[in-house]
């Protein structure tokens, strides 16, 4: 039986699965290594140090999140800003996105505390989502960059309210967005 060589590319999906299930709180190399079927020394060999491992792991998870979003979104551009907002909020409220959103709020908390891998990851994730939203907007949108920022702010607010058990507050605000916007 041939054993798959341990590479960063092979390790990242295994590590991501562990983090999506267990979160970032008290993240330690030994449990991560055990989840990947390797040792903490091998993780350091492949990633250099824990901070680099976390940075690459969060980048990998962000890419998976984007792919998951693409899978549930209709193909092509949406007909309006309001349709973009409504479609993305509905998609991210699905059960399949819960682990990503739980992890997202842990990243946000780490960034708010000034922890560099989390701050860098949060910024990169926001940049990726802004670009992704711009690609969903109609081609004739007069200000896609501004629209993407507005939509992202509303999405983040709705997700935060969902996370604390107050989706009805978000629902009222989202319903107030004009359909033609």
How does the helix and strand content classify structurally?
A: mainly alpha
Q: Uncertain regions: pLDDT < 50 for 5+ in a row? A: none
Question: Share of helix among residues?
Answer: over 70%
Mind telling me the C-alpha Rg?
Answer: 18 Å
Question: What's the number of extended β-strand segments?
Answer: 0
Alpha-carbon distance between the two ends? 59 Å
What's the helix-strand series? HHHHHHHHH
Mean pLDDT: 92
Total helices: the number is: 9
**Largest sheet data:** none
Shape: elongated
Which percent range describes the beta-strand content? under 5%
Short note summarizing the structure:
By secondary structure, this protein is mostly helical. It has helices at 8-22, 29-36, 40-47, 50-72, 81-92, 98-112, 116-136, 144-163, 167-175.
Question: Any key phrases for this structure?
Answer:
181 residues, mainly alpha, elongated
What does this structure look like?
Helix 1 (8-22) packs across helix 4 (50-72), helix 4 packs parallel to helix 7 (116-136) and helix 8 packs antiparallel against helix 9. 72% of the residues lie in helices and 0% in strands. The protein is an all-alpha fold and 181 residues long.
Which SSEs are present, and which pair or pack?
Blueprint (H helix, E strand, L loop, with lengths): L7 H15 L6 H8 L3 H8 L2 H23 L8 H12 L5 H15 L3 H21 L7 H20 L3 H9 L6
Helix pairs in contact: 1-2, 1-4, 3-4, 4-7, 5-8, 6-7, 7-8, 8-9
């Amino acid at each position: 039986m041939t054993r798959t060589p341990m590479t960063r590319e092979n390790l990242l999906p295994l590590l991501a699965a562990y983090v999506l299930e267990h979160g970032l709180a008290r993240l330690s190399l030994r449990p991560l290594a055990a989840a990947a079927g390797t040792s903490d020394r091998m993780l350091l060999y492949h990633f250099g140090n824990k901070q680099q491992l976390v940075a690459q792991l969060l980048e990998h998870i962000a890419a998976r999140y984007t792919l998951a979003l693409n899978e549930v979104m209709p193909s092509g551009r949406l007909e309006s800003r309001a349709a973009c907002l409504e479609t993305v909020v509905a998609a991210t409220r699905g059960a399949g996105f819960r682990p990503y959103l739980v992890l997202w709020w842990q990243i946000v908390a780490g960034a708010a505390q000034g922890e560099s891998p989390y701050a860098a990851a949060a910024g990169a994730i926001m940049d990726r989502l802004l670009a992704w939203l711009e690609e969903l907007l109609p081609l004739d949108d007069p200000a896609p960059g501004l629209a993407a920022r507005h939509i992202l702010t509303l999405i983040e607010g709705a997700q935060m309210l969902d996370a604390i058990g107050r989706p009805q507050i978000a629902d009222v605000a989202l319903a107030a967005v004009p359909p033609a916007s």
